[in-house]
Write a structure and sequence with these properties.
Layout lengths: L14 H9 L4 E3 L1 H14 L4 E6 L8 H15 L3 E6 L21 H15 L8 E5 L1 H4 L4 H8 L4 H6 L1 H22 L13 H15 L8 H17 L3 E5 L3 H13 L6 E5 L25 H9 L3 H11 L4 H12 L5 H17 L1 H16 L9 E7 L2 E8 L2 E7 L6 E3 H7 L6 H9 L3 E3 L2 E2 L6 E3 L4 E7 L3 E7 L1
Parallel strand pairs: 2-3, 2-5, 3-4, 5-6, 7-15
Antiparallel strand pairs: 1-6, 7-8, 8-9, 10-13, 11-12, 11-14, 14-15
The structure holds one RNA strand of 86 nucleotides.
Amino acid sequence: MPDAKQKPAQQQKSVEEQLAYLRKGAAEIIREDELKAKLEQSAKTGKPLRVYLGVDPTAPDIHLGHTVVIRKLKHFQDMGHTAIFLIGDFSAMIGDPTGQSETRPPLSREQVDANAKTYLDQVFKILDRDKTEVRYNSEWLGKLTSYEVIRLCGKYPLARMLEREDFRSRLESGRKWEELRRGISGLVKPGRQHGSEPPESDRKLDALRRGISGLAKPQSIAIHELLYPLLTALDAVQLQSDVELGATEQKFNLLVHREIQREYGLAPQVAFTMPILVGLDGVKKMSKSLGNYIGISEPPNEMFGKLMSISDELMWSYYELLTDFEERVIVRLKEEVRTGVLHPMDAKMQLAHTIIASFHGEAAANAARDEFQRVFRNRQAPSEIEEIHLKLQGNVISVERKTGPNLRKGTITGPLTNIQKWSSLLHGFAFVSSAAEAERLMKQGGFDVNDEGVRDPSAKLDLSHSATYTVRVGKKKFLRIIVE
RNA sequence: GGACGGGUGGGUGAGUGGCUAAAACCAGCAGACUGUAAAUCUGCCGCUCCUUGCGGGCUACGGAGGUUCGAAUCCUCCCCCGUCCA
């Protein structure tokens, strides 16, 4: 048998097997029969498919939501096909209007470059670095002449472009908003009398107002946003791709790409979409700006805690989209939970462990699991807590803050004595956003010193003699304070 | 170019001269219950000071001025946004 490394994996798997593997978790494959034909062709000629994923480096960190589609790219890579990771460094400067309720501020060149770099480091936690083709679309888009841009625009009708949901709803909401507003000003507004039942017209008014508040505020569309799908279509042309991956929200873009490829005399690519990962809140899509995300570079303990906090229902889509468990295994787990054989919490722990292991390794995942049990099941303080060393020196308190390998130093100044209020100290460490916030926590029982609740917001810490305090602030923040 | 309408706290949005640190809803936070889940219930939710009190001070309703004992609310100018007509 020849060396396995020489032999592409696809030759070892039948087209049917490949399809089954690739299909897992997919939202839509347009069109599946074309994909099958391409796979067959590839198997026959031994020429791997060119599969690409384009990403705009709009934010420096990638989170689990981004990994769904990157993992699918890896699946193609596993099957021996060519994975192309395209960095939309040029298109990012336009900004994808997809899912945007307003025009985004364009990114600067510097931001894009910086983001692209950190992006790649993280991407290769999933993809095989040696087998991945990395491209930047500024390479060709940056060289376009305005003549070429105009020619490109000539290949796609405006009406089609405006069909897309993002644009349509932005235009539509403006119109509706105006209509309702007219309705409101049409009603006379009588002075409302206190204590009396609101008159009929007032109720109408309220109903209209509620109607308005349900609508998104109208947002303008800038012309350059129309260009986004067209320009990125040139990526597909340039790369001569067979398959393009994207989240479901990218469907429109992917379809435009397909058509433009045809216009340029190429065989249209398969548009392969993946579902959007729901964030920790269980409702909205995972995104950094909503704060409901798990970054893939986050420390294992952090990831574990966040994963455990997702709802039981959500767990299953995470299993589907973030692990390599086979479909039938997931179905069985689900069944076991349903029948009570398996506790949902244990299923979730396994999920968390699996995901963390894929980014940080088995050992780190084990450690994170043990730590989780320790802190939350047994309600003990974490084994490693942030330490803050305090020293009163004359008029200032020097603060040394040890966070893992990082060491921060600072001082708290002001009218100082040996006796300091906890609330202002906590604020001084930037542990809470304001002293008022700290006082609030204390009043509500969210503050312990050495396992004893401290409720008095004016409670103080004596700095005159050395001591060590273990402090809990809120549900999950712990701190060790060492007075020197 | 013309005619309308709008800009209030993290978001939506009420509020047309004092009773408004500003309703309501959402988000967020804490507590209870738990499986750090969900759901539910309770409380909190600008900053700051202290003697932590239905306490004092400061800042806040696009921006700048003005009227007034008093302005998110009235006036002037400016900036921004939307709709319709051309």
